[in-house]
């Protein structure tokens, strides 16, 4: 989600500084690089050693450290980052920022930077409510500084009200939102992907050859255009994409439940190869071999997830995209399928033996909508995904 993003984290001097340790951990879990700056007042609440251990790097603290100046000037320190985060942002730090003071490393970095800044204020409720702090807050907002929190609640000083620093995960979400750009920012898109497994008994199941590669590539392409992606996947061969909410399911019925929970969305891309049938009475005990009797499986029809969403009276996404895996008469079958299911577009492909699509890395698709058919040349599944994501972003614009 934040892979390769560089965060300069300034830790101010407040009791909430201990939460910054968790913030560092959460950011690194998501692939971010964190350069911590611990203010002198911050050192009263957390130690440089604990900050450095969690960040996996040196902690900056002294403006006049000549070694640091030689190796990386404080101005450069603030500019290599993708985002400067101040957590906790104390009343004092906010006042310094608003007034343009630069008398220690933290305030100097904040004055010298041309990188976007996000602050997570934390202070006593009276200090927060004070006209001076509110004036500084308005100045900072006006200067383009983003603000997350503070939240209301019991405070360490025994009072109640706004002033608690936002939780680390809220700060992470605000950081991700600030760093995400692209034409799909603000759009929520559901993608189903992979096969489903329909149990016969506790050890056996019915499945299909879908690897999940195409659905995964689509989810990745949508996320890289800034969409909030909910990725509902059956047991796929490929790893789920970065930066999306992953919901893992086994069966078609579980997939339907996860899809319904994800609504409403702006668009739905139904790339999963959902099993059309399940075993009506899956056994909860392993079926045993017997010389004379072959097991007989009774089937029941699975819900058609795409059709249910496309034809729903409530919460129908603005754009519903189905896939059609066909082995013959691709255009005829897919055109009929689009109308039967009620979706806006169908991405049709030939999955006959020898096409190499199922489990392969390339795909040749035909996109069918109400205006007709678009034949795309053979290309990698990643390329198909990028082109489809672009087409989706134009449709939702
Ligand atoms: N689909 C679905 N739920 C199902 C079956 C299919 O959501 N129970 C979706 C797939 O994700 C795909 C589209 O419907 O987007 C078409 O899938 P496909 O297997 O090609 O179509 P079927 O409805 O199974 O039709 P048929 O097997 O007759 O070709």
Tell me the Rg in angstroms. Answer: 27 Å
Under CATH, the homologous superfamily of the largest domain reads CoaB-like
Strand content: 15-25%
Shape: elongated
Biggest sheet strand line-up: 12-11-8-13-16-17-19-20
Tell me what the CATH architecture of the largest domain is.
3-Layer(aba) Sandwich
* Class from helix and strand fractions: alpha/beta
Low-confidence stretches: none
Q: How far is the N terminus from the C terminus?
A: 24 Å
The first-level CATH class name of the largest domain: Alpha Beta
CATH topology of the largest domain: Rossmann fold
For the biggest sheet, the summary is: 8 strands, mixed
The number of distinct helices, counting runs of at least 4 residues, comes to 14
Averaged pLDDT: 93
List the bound ligands.
cytidine-5'-triphosphate
Number of strands: 21
**Helix amount:** 25-40%
> In the residues, how many domains can be counted?
2
List keywords for this structure.
single chain; Rossmann fold; 2 domains; 5-stranded parallel sheet; binds cytidine-5'-triphosphate; decarboxylase; CoaBC
């Amino acid at each position: 989600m934040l892979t390769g993003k560089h965060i300069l984290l300034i830790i101010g001097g407040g009791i909430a500084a201990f939460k910054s340790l968790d913030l560092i951990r959460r950011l690194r879990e998501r692939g971010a690089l964190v350069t911590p700056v611990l203010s002198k007042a911050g050192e009263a609440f957390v130690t440089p050693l604990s900050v450095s251990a969690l960040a996996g790097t040196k902690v900056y603290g002294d403006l006049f450290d000549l070694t640091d100046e030689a190796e990386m000037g404080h101005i450069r320190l603030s500019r290599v980052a993708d985002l400067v985060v101040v957590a906790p942002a104390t009343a004092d730090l906010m006042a310094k920022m608003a007034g343009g003071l630069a008398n220690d490393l933290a305030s100097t970095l904040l004055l010298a930077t041309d990188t976007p800044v996000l602050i997570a204020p934390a202070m006593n409720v009276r200090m927060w409510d004070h006209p001076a702090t509110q004036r500084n807050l308005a100045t900072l907002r006006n200067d383009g500084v983003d603000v997350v929190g503070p939240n209301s609640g019991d405070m360490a000083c025994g009072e109640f009200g706004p002033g608690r620093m936002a939780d680390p995960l809220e700060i992470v979400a605000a950081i991700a939102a600030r760093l995400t750009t692209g034409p799909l920012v603000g759009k929520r898109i559901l993608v189903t992907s992979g096969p489903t497994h329909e149990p016969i008994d506790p050890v056996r199941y019915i499945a299909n050859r879908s690897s999940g590669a195409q659905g995964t590539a689509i989810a990745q392409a949508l996320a890289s255009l800034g969409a909030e992606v909910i990725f509902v996947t059956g047991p796929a061969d490929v790893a789920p994409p970065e930066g999306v909410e992953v919901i893992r399911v086994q069966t078609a019925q579980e997939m339907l439940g996860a899809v319904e929970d994800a609504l409403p969305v702006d668009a739905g891309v139904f790339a999963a190869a959902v099993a059309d049938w399940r075993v009506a009475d899956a056994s909860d005990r392993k079926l045993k071999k017997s010389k004379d009797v072959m097991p007989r499986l009774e089937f029941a029809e699975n819900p058609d997830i795409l059709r249910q969403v496309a034809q729903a009276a409530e919460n129908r996404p603005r754009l519903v995209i189905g896939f059609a895996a066909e082995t013959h008469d691709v255009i005829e079958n897919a055109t009929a399928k689009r109308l039967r299911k009620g979706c806006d577009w169908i991405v049709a492909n030939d999955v006959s033996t020898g096409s190499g699509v199922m489990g392969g890395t390339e795909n040749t698709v035909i996109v069918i909508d109400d205006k007709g058919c678009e034949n795309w040349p053979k290309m990698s599944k990643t390329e198909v995904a990028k082109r489809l994501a672009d087409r989706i972003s134009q449709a939702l614009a």
